[in-house]
Fold these 2 entries.
Entry 1:
Amino acid sequence: MRNVVLSLALCAALAASLPVTRGQAAVPVSVRLSALQLIGPGRLRVDATIAGLQPDLRPTIQQAVTLGGRTREGAPLPVVAPQLPYVLDLPTGTVRLGGVLVDQSAPFPPLDENTAVSVAVTVRQGDELATARVTTLLLLPTVLVPGYLNDVGSGRIDTGAVAALERRGFHLTGPAPTLFWFAYRSRTLSLQDAARQLAAYVRTVVLPAAYATRINLVTYSLGGLLARWDMAAQPGWDRLVNRFVMIAVPNEGAVLSYVDGWYPLGGLARTPAARSLLPTFPFWRPNAGAGWTLPRDSANTVLADLNTHPLPAAVRAYAFYGNHPPRGPAPGTLAGVTGALPQAAASYGAGDGIVLMASALGLPINGGPGVPGIADHLVLTVDLGSAGHQSLFAVASARVADALLDRRVGDTANTLGESGAETRVPPAPATDRDGADGGFLQSTQQGNP
């Protein structure tokens, strides 16, 4: 028995001293990939780290790129180092390895939708294969369009809204941003002029910084009207916009714009943009027994004309709105005026304190027609609860990010069919409640939309 053990030990020692036969690696080969990183518009980088290399086995490396369901494979190349950077350039269809061109084919088409891209790297060494794959989602550029008074305080970015989007993969900075903040002079520009500046910003800033033919728009309050104006008036915008998100957008105006403009200190309610926020729905009556109508000094031809233009068929539209009902100590959102100011009585409806829920959804208010080009086009409506108007941009942003990524938004969302609305949230009936002083002075000073 002892002789058998000694013989086995000698055989093992002899085998260890022999050279490795080609095709049988002594150490298993492995490959690991870093995360895909955007290093420019349509340019991605991934680093491959290879372990267990044996040069005498002449290892090779080969990459395959899958984008939009199409896969392109490169030719096998000798492995020259254990760490190798790949750079994929979609506009030229080229792949560079360590700065050297190793593959070239037809350019990848620009994005017209969020698109998954996958890079697989295979190392072959003798009879062994090792493969690693990494995937990321290339996002369409998304433009954030804030509301009225966004230019107060040097046009500060709403960090709360941006942070939630960045946590889900969007980026406001870096070599290839996917978020863009459009600041504009809301206190001096008209709605039309601000909309033209938005169109110029998309043309000169957004599209050159992204490898895409379409964009997403996330709009808040007045910003939603700017975007709607461009979709109605700017050539090509009916196909440029993919997803259009409206957060507390006064699609039918807001009564508070009219009321604030009546007061001597309501200068901010009398700017050109603020006048575009006057209600287009009936909101005044001489007495409680009369029908709702529009007062003679409230003409808003800009918004009335815009509301004759339905949203383009190719645009997916989403509406996020506040929904505080008119009950309890908080009266709700102004829906109507009965009598002459300042001794008029106020009527309230569900909303965010400034914009009625029905206005955000384009539904009929006080017997008005609503906005069929919006109400029957929404693919998703999201009730944000009783949050106030000025906080809704940040409150909505996490759910907005989910909508942009086509994820489930949450239990408060109402999913609608792509071809139109399958469900509707009816407007809450207006509730007549007088202000504390018999008029509006104390009960309506909440700010402007």
Entry 2:
Amino acid sequence: MIIATAVLYAAKDLLLPLAIAMVLAVIFSPIATRLEKAVGRALSSAAIVLMTIMALAVIVYFLTVELTSVAVRVADYSDNIATKITSLEKNTPDWLQRVKEGIANVQHQLRWEAPRSSSVSQTTAGLPNGGELVKRVLPIASDAAEGGLIIVLLFFLLYARKDLRDRMVRLAARAGITIAKRAIDSAGEAVGRYLLFFSMINFGYGLAVTAIMWMLGLPNPELWGMLAFLLRFIPYVGALGSALFPTMVAVAVFPGWSKAIEVIVSFMVLDQIAAHLIEPFVIGRGIGVAPAALLISTTYWA
């Protein structure tokens, strides 16, 4: 286990794009099979890759524009935020206030005793040299290369999925393991169907969040619906994470605390309805993994 974890960590730059491409290939494999009958294997694989790129670009653009709009709008309510922070400070218990003052004193002492080399660094600072420029550009180039690798892997996994299946069967036969082609196809279809139904439920969850946030008067309700749809793919903590941002915006925008409480309660109720009422009817009891095991696996892979 330790050796496998070390290998995964050391090779994550290669294995992470491969894992993402494999998951996407499993999801889109049924669509590729249907398109292949009409336009051929190469065109069907290329069309799915192009649609995936366009969908991701639209999502990134939408989130960027909407988050910028929210940041600008929240900045207009600085007085409301300051009033609430002041009220919280007035109601802070004495013991917590003493802890806060102690931390402030330690920070002040550290700043006072820090070496005063900022003026020297400011005088020598100018245009970034070649090394600094490479350090800034390298992460962007690495992310772009990783995205390109995912795209290429997705295309070839879709294009050669049947050949890869046959090779896997032959390798298993040499190792003395009996695996039928139909078993691999059935497993892929089951996983793809599960992910499809789960995506549909999350999409409905996002639509419900959008409608409720609109009724509550929260700015940019479509943004919170999109975040709810995307983050709910993360087990357990995803729904809570999607509720955090709109709750903070409600605290900043609305007077009092009632709207913020309504927002977070709405997320919790919708998540419970989706998890305990809709999912068992639509996709059954899931994949039979215990909640503790799912939390541990989520923490490990994160």
